[in-house]
Amino acid sequence: MKLTEALEILRNRARDAPRFAVTLACGFTPLHLQTFLRAHLQTRLPARSVEISVGLYGDITGTVENLTLTSGDAAAIVVEWADLDARLGYRHSGGWGPSELMDIVMSAERAVERLAQGIRRAPDSLPIAVSLPTLPMAPVFYASMHEASSAEMKLQEAVIAAGHGLSALPNVAILSGQLLGEQSPPGSRYDLKSDLLSGLPYTIAHASAMGNGLAELIVPGAPKKGLITDLDDTLWNGIVGDAGVENITWDLASHSQVHGLYQQLLRALAEQGVLIAAASKNDPELVDQAFARTDILLPRDRVFPMEAHWHAKSVSVGRILRTWNIGADSVVFVDDNAMELAEVGEAHPGIECVRFPKSDDAAAAGFLRDLRQAFAKRQVNEEDGLRRESIRSASELHRAVEDGQSAPDAFLAEMKARMKVDFEPSASDARVLELINKTNQFNLNGIRYGETDWRNALARDCAFAASVAYEDRFGPLGKIAVMAGYRNDASLRITTWVMSCRAFARRIEHQCVRLLFERFGVEEIEFDFAATPRNGPVQEFLAAITAGKPPFLLRRDTFEDNLPRLFHEVTIETPRSFGAAPTCG
């Protein structure tokens, strides 16, 4: 991003939008860094007005320690060597002789520990992005520049150890030095003239790269949910129908290591909860035989569905999307054939089509890294591990009903469904926020929350929240729904309600409403519904149970008169004395 572009973004922001307040802690004059950070955050948060406050010049530690008092939405902490000891920078003349070196090291170690303690004391609900030193140290070492001296290594060790400890905190993210090195080469980061004249040590290019990286840590992009792969000349080298099952390869000896690395990556993605499917114009029996090979790195049970036949790839992709019940914009399609990519992309707008680098080893490293980045997430939770099997079981459920094996009531009665409802979910539960911020179809209004926003919503008078976990004879789904709102006299107002698409067709939504009436003893429920491009399922449900149109208001007697039979065994994890919001006038 150029500086003029950043300024244009900030000029065009919606000034009356809700504020997104960020504290920027650094020891230098931020100038362009502040501008770029605001602009990069603003592009990620178009419905907010990003504001950045900075601490006192030269007092990064004081700014960090004051985070305990902040009511803001996030913080960015930018540490440079001069913040740890002024003699490691160029704006002070405190001595670079051998006699001062040990004192510099000890002083920096103390400063690192004080900064780390300040960060640990910050509210655990505050997202914090931390950048460790990115600029070269001043020439304080008497050893050759080619040699990493003991003193230099000791300084590096103190910083890395602190970063390692902080990275374990759930609200702290450390900026990657490796990626920053590619985007902003070390030799082009420092501007001595700017540092001496204005107190900003960064070149404009480095300030832009830093702003982008910190913004990504504070407001990370939504990860993709599924990957659909071709097989021949993609998952393996060769065409299985021509070469034979025994002659397709994916190893170093056969000069097809990239295919093996791709299999390895898909297996890793599957283990972190990414949905993996295959769409191949192929003989299904040969495909089964290929996956039966003992040396394949991607087990067959990690791939669902498997679409191997001779129909168009776009048809296969459409069936996979319907089975997964997710939008095309949440999926990556990988194929070695440009024509197949174009055909799928035209049939399914929004899907990300990526060409496999079959004959371009130079592009392979970037291909693998970009795929990993597309599915990146900070934490892998229990629900991630359940996703593939829950979709497989849901597919079996729908197929059984469609095949007429039993009527819906009879089928649901045999499912042994169990729901666990917690009316006191932790405000720091990552799965709760993940559901709210990533669910699209059964989403009451599309409103997203940051950690601070969510805590503030739960802290308001008369507020309540509930999370729902589910399992049946097909297996556990984990936490699949979140409801939140507040009570007002004899009514309940629902401001947030999301449910995973994996939980559809089980009447869980009916049970949720029944539990709200029972828990709070109200006579009517108001739903803060707002149409989004993809929340048709929740609108259809509300229209059905209220027999009306937006705004949706549901009376208890109307609901009970039209309630279908429910078969869930319900466990309330929170005692009734907790979670029942007080009556508010």
From TrEMBL:
Gene3D superfamilies found in the cross-reference section: HAD superfamily/HAD-like
Transmembrane segments: none
Chain segments annotated as coiled-coil in the UniProt record: none
SUPFAM superfamilies in alphabetical order: HAD-like
NCBIfam families according to UniProt: FkbH (TIGR01686), HAD-SF-IIIC (TIGR01681)
Protein name: FkbH like protein
Protein species of origin: Solibacter usitatus (strain Ellin6076)
